[in-house]
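Our consortium's second objective concerns turning raw sequence data into structural hypotheses that experimental partners can test. To show how far this objective has progressed, the report includes one record in full. It was chosen at random from the queue rather than selected for favorable results. The single chain below, 729 residues long, was entered without modification.
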Amino acid sequence: MSRILFVLLFVGAGIHLSNAQNEITLEDLWLNYKFYERSVPGFNFMNDGSSYTRLEDGVIKKYSIQSGKFMEDIFAFKKAGKSDEADVSMSGYSFSADESKILVEYEREGIYRRSSKAFFYVWDGKNFMPLYDRKKVMHASFNPAGTQVAFVFENNLYVKDLASNKVTAITNDGAFNTIINGSADWVYEEEFGFTKAFQWSPDGKYIAYYKFDETDVKEFTMTIYKDEMYPEYQTFKYPKVGERNATVSIHVYDVDNNTQVQSDLPVDPELYTPRIKWAADKGLCVTMMNRHQNELTLNLVNPTTGSSTVILKEKNKYYIDITDNLTFLDGASSFLWTSEKDGFNHIYHYGLDGKLIKQITSGDWDIANFYGYDQDESELYYLSAEDGSTERYVYAIQLDGSNKRKLPQEKGWNTAQFSSTYDYYVLRHSTNSQPTTYEVFNRKGKSVRLIEDNARLNSLHESMDLQAPEIMTIKPSKGVELNAYVIKPADFDVNKEYPLFMYLYGGPGSQQVANRWGGQNYWWFQMLAQQGFIVACVDNRGTGGKGEEFKKMTYQQLGHYETIDQIDAAKYFGELDYIDANRIGIFGWSYGGYMSSLCLLKGNDVFKAAIAVAPVTSWKWYDSIYTERYMRTYAENESGYRDNSPVYFADQLKGNYLLVHGLADDNVHYQHTAEMTRALVNANKQFDTYVYPNKNHGIYGGPTRYHLFKKMTTFLNDKLMNDYSSVGE
């Protein structure tokens, strides 16, 4: 114990013991990035079936799949005769379908979470041509023949013919905060998960695109500070709960004839259009939903007339999650679809007339991801939780539901990326004590080669005196069974009492308790364990991997069951002989910050401290699509909003509260923390606040993460390790 206290004195002063071989420091975590995991950026299977490319130090390099031998540099700025661009970092690249041309992207500039703009060049092996003068554009994409590129510039959609260099404007009514063509608005980007809002048809004759009319959507403004006399103001359209959404229309442009039609689907701010996808020559499939997101239709649109036909309807008593699993087979004569309609997410085969041909998978487990259909072998590939909710494995199954098989893979968390021919796939594997490996397999499941093994990080981990997380099932209250993990100090002594630090997210369909590598958070948790904490994480009701009823039972009352579960879990751990029930803290970010705030307030006799980073403090201030999916509108469900929003329980604060937010958070606006601060002050409650100017929801850049985690670590040490007063005092 004396050694732990000695270390803490130095940590609190910002000094670290450099001669402690196994010690994890914040400097190594967030300044030196000593524990960062290597990935395989820009990985791409080539058409020849025997090679792949990846992006290394700004160069597209080609390797043999079989031997791993380097073959050639496919592209480098110097190779293109652009020595003046040699020091420019390439952001990404994409091949034309025949791989004769490459779209080279560099100087990417982020806009929101997923959206960005960048400079694009076209490289054909000899010539290096700017796509659109020297202007940054969005979503540059080859047509199937590789002869044209479509892109978005200043809210308008364009197409460039590469032979003639002619650029044609498909739209001309785009205007900031008014009309968007070919790119998603803020709320679609954030909640439906896409930014590129156009698609080439498989034959290259058409481009289907979204048009967002944001005219009547209310604006939100953030303040940006730049050491100038006056700050800048960033204003964007953000539809909040119950407010007007953008109206969305779907259009199809005929490339050869320079004509276009609008689909006959309704244009209504009370409807959503979360996906479009070409169904070969059968037309464009448009997914539409009602505002409550519990009724869905698949609509087949004729690209020449715009007329539509419904091919599938689905309803749910809660809500329907949107995925990218819709897959058309054999020239779009039928399609595959995933649904939770039997209580678990499974794969279904339908005809274009909407009639069910076959439910392909079934059982009390969820399909976690659908990878695709190998038409030559009549075989489907998918990821599932059928071997336990805390693990994932890749499976194959015949279209008729026969011959299901698990692909060769180790115990833990597995995901896959398949080549277009399904001859090869990259298997990504990790456990909660082993970082990710990337290994290529052939279609017979035989290992071809290891691309990345993270050997350095794995060796570092094995050399340190750390205890791996213990995954367990707990029953903190009657009839409730929850997944949890616990990290104990390496010198754990059952006869001692330790402070407990709980981490959570807890949002709908999420999962934190899993047998997978935990990234930077994992190392921070191990650092806290070195300092004498026991770290625990519990997946409450409402999280994923256990079927629809477990996930959707929080419908219309977000925060209610989740808080009960976390408080009961804290009590459960507090009853263990080696945990001090008077020293329990909790931390979360975003939805987790919402949860940690609620737990501290509603569980003020249990939790002594809480850290909330970028928290929602009332759902009425969050965006329309996410919140209404789970809560409906404030007018429809006022009690659900008020009964579970931290801002209404500020007067119940007894413990220590650290509230953190970025002022440039376009997702969970600083408004949430400002209102929470106001409520706490009005209730005469003391608390700590950290504000990060110009930082978004992720709060990163430069030394920012180090600064934040240093504060959080000091806070936990001060409130839970060095202060032995009881909860509520």
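The partners drew two points from this record. The radius of gyration is 27 Å. The chain has four domains: 2-34+468-721, 40-167, 170-322, 360-431+434-465. Both points have been shared with the crystallography group to help prioritize constructs.
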